[in-house]
Amino acid sequence: MVIRRWSWRTKYWLFFLLPAMGLMFAITIYPLFFSFYNSFHGWVLYRTSESRPFVGVEHFVKILTWPRFWWSMGITATFVSLSLCLSLVIGMGLAVLLSRGDIRGKGVIRALLIIPLVLTPVVVGFGFRFMYNAEIGIVPWILRWLGFKIESILGDPKLSLYAVILTDVWNQTPLVFLILLAGLQAIPQEPYEAAQIDGASRWQIFWCITLSALKPAILIALIIRTIDAFKIFDIIYVMTEGGPGTSTMVLSILGYNITFVSFRMGLASAFSLIFLYLIIGLSSIYIYLLSQGRAK
Amino acid sequence: MKSVHLVELTVVYTILGIAIFGALAPIIWILLTSLKTMEQIRADVPLVFFRGTLQNYSSVFKSNFLNSFLDSLIISLCTLGIAILVGTPAAYALARFNYRGGKAISFWILSMRMAPPFAFVVPFYLIFRTMRWLETYQALVAIYLTFNLSFLIWMLQSFIKDIPVEIEEAAMVDGCSPVQVLWQITIPALAPALAAVSILCFIFSWNEFLFAYVLAGDRVRTVPVAIASQMGFMGIRWEIMCTSSIISILPIVIFTLFVQKYLVRGLTLGAFR
Lengths: 296, 273
Hints:
The complex is a heterodimer of chains A (296) and B (273). Chain A is mainly α and 296 residues long. Chain A contains 15 helices and no strands. Chain A is globular. The two termini of chain A are 21 Å apart. In chain A, 41% of the residues are buried. The model of chain A has no long low-confidence stretch (mean pLDDT 85). In chain B, β1 and β2 form a beta hairpin. The two termini of chain B are 42 Å apart. Chain B is an all-alpha fold. Chain B contains twelve helices and two strands. The mean pLDDT of chain B is 85. The longest helix of chain B is centred in the last third of the chain and has 35 residues. In chain B, strands 1-2 form a two-stranded antiparallel ribbon. Helix content of chain B is 78%, strand content 1%. Chains A and B meet through α1, α2, α4, α5 and α6 of A and α1, α4, α5, α6 and α7 of B.
């Protein structure tokens, strides 16, 4: 729905659009250009001389041929996919259960279930770090009580990633749950009634009707969670800082180390641009897939 | 038939109960820990029943931990205020007027919402360092606007498009200017959506860590940074950590329980746009 008075377009755009666009330009485009410029120059922050030699694409090459970069990429991908799968399964189950007609107290149940989502990630990270603590944490205690010989969770390179994934699942599953719940509530009743008249079994109903009607919602949840999980920083930094070793070094943590531990600003700029392109690429897939869905 | 249904219902409620337990158990455990002394925390068997004490809370309240609440509040409210002030007209313009660069602008706004915060840490740190804006409120407000403004414009744009334009056109036929239309017709109709988006923006600003940690430190310290800064070299004092965690999430939890309707609307409809 568009307003057709073209004269107003030009007259009022100054009031309406310019402040926002100006602000957005200053805080998004300018820093990115700055980063772009820096990525072609060497700049180490703690060196006192102001030399910033032009190094061309050396930084980009360095990063893209850096084994640790690809290792980090792998860790991030593992993190994203496992967190996503668990969230989808749990979120789907809960959404299906909560959208039943015969449940009372839906509002209360839903309100309680979304609490993990709104908590400060730093608090979530420390809370779980406490619970995973080898000496005083409750999780190792329970595991030992069950018979597993656990020395340390966050200090064990084999376990740390899974512990962190579990924390993220706890934190973010409510979002998936909400999206799927909304999707479920939007499904019309007629197909169900028709299927029941035709004598379909419950399982068949779920597979054919519910799941296919939920495809757009699942896709949306998938993409939002994928992009969010790729960016994760707070929880992991607070729990393990990327360690032990590099077992939980996701891309954000790697970038943080390049910037604030090594202080190599040129390299960091290049890294952040690569990271940005990666995410924008994923977002573009999102927009594309979504518009495909809309066209149907 | 009815008894089978009853069994099924019991199973469903049980599963939901387990889910709620899973969602709340960590919080309750941290809460219990905050009421323990260090010896009780170190007990061989995790104590569920114990003699509680409020000494941790008095320690935290005596420290300047609560100052960080003020800092967080100032920054979150300022960011929200600017975002609403500047973003609502922009969303209206983008929704109603057909600009040539419209699609490109929409993509740009969406990208900013999706962009990894890290991509902006490096340039912002360097820029603010030069501007001597490190450890200031305005630095964080500026950065949070990146996400909040784009998020707000993106969401409101869709919501405005849902409002039928006939009312506005009628008003304009009657002689209202777009400013009047915006103020008197669109915004009242937009109120619930605006509330939902505002809540999400506020929570985002409140919970943000990376930029707050990197750009502000001593003079300006938001709640997440205050909690993280308890990672001393001597290791973490868990009883204090749990206590300050509980103090900081209490407002969030209470707030969520009150506004959950709007929160859910904002999260889900935002997803479906």
